[in-house]
Structures are given as C-alpha cells and as structure tokens.
Design a protein that fits this description.
Layout (H helix, E strand, L loop, with lengths): L1 E5 L5 H11 L3 E6 L12 E4 L14 E6 L5 H10 L4 E7 L37 H16 L3 E6 L1 E3 L10 H8 L2 E5 L5 E2 L1 E3 H13 L4 E5 L6 E2 H12 L4 E5 L1 H6 L27 H5 L7 H12 L14 H12 L1
Parallel strand pairs: 1-2, 1-4, 2-3, 4-5, 5-6, 6-11, 7-10, 8-13
Antiparallel strand pairs: 9-12
C-alpha cells in the first residue's frame, strides 16, 4: 500500500514509518523538515506546512493518510477536504482525552461514550481543558467527511523509545539509579499504557484491513497495576531501589502533581476510576497486540541513556526535590 504520513519523524510518526516499511508498504512523509529531517533518507519527503501547502499533494494518490499531529479543527478540516481526492482512507490519531471529563467516573469507557464539548468551538488555544474537546471536534470532521473511509484511533499513554514527554521514561531511569524511590498512593492503583511500536503495528493493521470508525488503543490486555509496572522497572534496571509509597494526602500537601511530577499516575478515586480502566476489547478483537512490559522498559532505558547528560526532563521529580519529599515522608 502507499501510505502518506503527516509528520513522521518524532515519536509515533517515526515508529509508524518503521512499522509500515517492515510490512512492505511504501511511505511518503509530509512535514516541515524541522524535526530530525535526515531520519529516513530513503523515504520520500514532501516539505510543507499542512495549513498552507496542501497543494503540493493534490496531484498524488495514496491508499491512506495518517494524521499524527492534528489538534485544531480548522486545520484538520483543511487537510481532510484538501486530501479528499488524493487518499482512499483518512486515519486520524486522537486521544483517550477526547472523552468528556464526566465519563472518567465510568469503569469500562468504550468507543460509544460521548466526547467533551466546548462552549466556543472556534477556540484554537490548546490547554489542558481544550485539548480533549478539540480532538473530539477533529474526529467528527474526519468521520463526517470520509464516512466508511474514516478511521479514528484514541490512544492512551504512549510509551517507549524516543518519547519526548518523559511521562514513562522517568520511571525506568529513576529505578536504574537505585536508592529510595518516591511512588504515589499504593501499588494496587491500575495503570494503562501502550508501547509506541505496538500502537504503530496496530494502526498499520487497521489500514490493511480497511477498518473504519473509532478504536480505543491502550493496554495491556490484562489489568496492570502501578506496583507491577514499577517492579518491572526495578528488575530490568537491576537496581537496589526501594519503593517508598506516599499517600494522596501527603502528595497534595506537598504540591506534588499527578501525571507530571508523578508520571503515569492519577489518583484512583471515584472521579477518575475509569481513567485507567478503559475498554479496549474492540481493539483486541481487531488484532491489537502487546509486547512484554519488560521489553518496553528495557528498550526505553537503553534509548534514554543515549541522550545528553544535561537533558532537561519534562516529567518526574528532580533528584533534590525527591530527596526533600522522602525526608518529609520519613518524618
């Protein structure tokens, strides 16, 4: 198949390229050439900005386009309309965050549950409050335009090598250092993550199968707890780390933020009990598979240690801050 990828050189995009090529598909990239432009020297790249340069694509034909970086409905609409005669299938990468905030009280959120809404649908500023609803609006545009040739994938937390967010990478690296490690709430808290390579393989398979509609895409195929995830980090890192569990109350009192300071974690309370218990049965039935967690941890750690020593972390606690919190916890 001939597949066009909007983006293709950062995180999910680069692994989509690898997955597609591994399955003998032909890939074309359309991007601005700003992020790692020499990553795929043997893959055709058409340089351009998706908002202004779609005319560079109109005389070409692809079986499918994968939109990895659509956030603003106005711009996604331009892409959807502009590519209508050039692509057979439009694949839009959305997010679990598209669901309405009230739905996260529900255990087993599925693809039929409502997405978030905005009072002003012309808003284009992307914030914590607008990101999900904007994704929902983008989804609707593509599904309305493409019908049975429209595909929406809603990933949860994507993890693995080349992740620029550090939201999972923090844990393998931290455990590899050893010592006392501050961890949130309790080991029984559920978490859901998906290795970027498993997600990429799944998306390419959906294209091959000419799938349409909406698919939740997170994992694994069994309930994973925070304790089991951190134990895997400890074992793979072959460290002497000791987990120090801190209560939700302690973390709140000391202004430790969920998801950012303590990556992967959100409090397991009534308001958020569905956040890490999303129903992925539709995706599994369609062929979504998951590699062992230990493999994800090992490969993430191997990649992370190749980064510069002065890498500025985007998630997790700085060492000094963690030590301060551990002293307070022991008191």
């Amino acid at each position: 198949m001939n597949i066009l990828i909007i983006g293709g050189t950062r995180f999910l995009g680069r692994h989509l390229v690898n997955s597609a090529i591994a399955r003998s598909h032909i890939v074309t990239l359309f991007n601005r050439g700003k992020s790692d432009p020499n990553l795929f020297p043997h893959v055709e790249t058409i340089l351009g900005d998706r908002e202004h340069d779609l005319e560079r694509l109109i005389d070409r034909k692809w079986d499918a386009v994968i939109d990895t970086c659509g956030y603003v409905p106005r711009i996604v609409s331009k892409s959807g309309v502009g590519l209508k005669s050039s692509v057979g299938q439009y694949v839009f990468i959305s997010s679990i965050s598209a669901y309405d905030d009230s739905i996260f009280k529900k255990i087993g959120i599925d693809e039929s549950d409502p997405v978030g809404r905005l009072e002003d649908e012309t808003v284009e500023e992307i914030t914590g409050g607008t990101y999900g609803p904007l994704k929902g609006l983008c989804e609707k545009i593509i599904l309305d335009l493409y019908g049975d040739h429209g595909l929406v994938v809603r990933p949860g937390l994507i993890v693995g090598p080349n992740d620029p967010t550090d939201r999972f990478t923090y844990w393998p690296v931290r455990f590899a250092k050893g010592g006392n490690v501050l961890a949130p709430e309790k080991p029984e808290v559920p978490v859901q993550i998906i290795d970027v390579r498993d997600l990429s393989d799944f998306i390419i398979k959906l294209i091959e199968d000419e799938s349409s509609g909406i698919y939740n895409a997170t994992g694994p195929g069994h309930e994973l707890t925070l304790g089991a995830m951190l134990d895997a980090c400890n074992q793979v890192g072959e460290s002497d780390a000791n987990i120090q569990w801190a209560s939700v109350e302690f973390l709140k009192e000391n202004n430790v933020q969920e998801w950012s300071d303590m990556p992967v974690w959100v409090p397991d309370n009534e308001e958020n009990q569905g956040f890490s218990r999303v129903d992925i049965s539709k995706g599994i039935k369609a062929g979504m598979k998951f590699r062992p967690l230990e493999e994800t941890v090992r490969d993430t750690l191997a990649w992370a240690i190749t980064r510069p020593a002065d890498h500025e972390w985007r998630a997790g606690l700085r060492s000094e801050r963690e030590q301060e919190l551990l002293r307070l916890l022991h008191q």
